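Team,

Forwarding the record for the chain on the shared tracking sheet. I've put the sequence and predicted structure together so nobody has to dig through attachments.
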Amino acid sequence: MTTPLLLPETGAALFSAHVAPDAIVLVGRPMREDSGSSPRFADDRWDMAPAYYLPNHHRGQAVIHFGKISDPCWRLTAKEYAYARLTKITEGCKKLPSVVTVARELRELQALFAYLEQFHGGLRLHMIDDDAVLEGFLDHRIDGGRTKAEQRAQGRGRVKWFLTLLHRTRTSMTYDRLERVPWDGHASRLVTGARSQENITPRIPPQILGPYLRGALFYLRVASKDILAALAEQERLRQPVGSQGVPRNDPRASLAAFIDSRRRQGRGLPARPSSGCPHHTLADGGVNRTLVAQLCRVGPAVLDHKACLAFLREAVAELGLEEGGMDTDILRTRTPADPGGHGSSRSRCWWKPACCWQPSTRSRFTSSG
C-alpha cells in the first residue's frame, strides 16, 4: 500500500519516513576484508566500493555524491531510491543490483532532476501526469547528448527502464515520487523504437569459419586431455625449489643424473623456444635452462655457472635438442610450411592443429618457465 506523500515544511530539516538516518547503506552485502565501514543513510557521500569485487573497476564508479543535488527534498528522494535499490529486490528484477549499477542509476536520477529544474521549473515528480515530460527527458538525455545513431534505441531503452524502476520504488519515498506509470507500462521496444540493423557485420564465410569449428572439435575430442596433463605437470614443476615437500637437490649430481636419464631414453635436452636464432650459436647450446632447472629440482641460477654451461654444451653435442622437453606427450602435426616442426611445441600443438591437424607423430609439451 502506498503511503501519502508528506509536505516538507519550509526551512525544516527533512527526514525519511522509511529509513533511519544512521541506517547502514550496505547492510547484508559482503564486504572486502581490507575495506572500511559502510556509509550511513544520512551521509552525503556514499563510498560503496568496499562491496564491489571486480579488480579492474575504478573506485569512483561506486561513489555517489548526493551533495551535488541542491534541492533538499530531491536529495532525500535520491537517497531513498538508492537505499531501496540496494536493500530490496525491485519488482521485475531477480536480484539486488551491484553498487556500481545503483551509482549509474543515480546519475540518471540527477540528470532527471536537472532537466526538470531547467525546462519545467517548479515541477515535482509526483506532479508528472502524462508522458510528454518523460518523452522530453528521453530526447534530451539521448538525442541531445553524444549517443551514436546506432546506439540510440538501446540508450533510450536504458533510460526508460530507469524511469520504470523509479516508479516501482515509489513506496520508499517520503516527500516526492514518480506516481505515474511511465508509458502506461508498455514494453521498451514500443517506446524506444526498433533497433534497426543491430548487427551489420557480414557473415563469416565457410572457408574461414570451418577451420575454427574443426579447431574447437580438436580441442574437445583430442587435445583437451593432453593440455590438462601438461598443465598439471607444469604446475608441479613450478613449485618453488626447497618448499615444503619439494627438496632441493645437489645441483651437479642432479644435472648429471638428468642428462644420463635422457641418454638412456634416447631423448635430447629441452630446447629453448626458438626466437629466430639458431640454437647452436647460443652459449648454452640452445638449452631451455629454466625447464632443465625445474626438472632437476635445482635453482635456475645454478645453471648460469660456466662449468654447468660447458656441461650442457657437451650434452647437446652428444644428445642433441628436443623440442618441448616436458614429460607429457602431445599430438603434433607437420605442415608444408613447416616440415621440420621447428619451434615451440606448446604453441604449435595448441593452435596450429585447429586448422590442419592430422594424427601423425607425438611430441612433448614445452615450458618457458
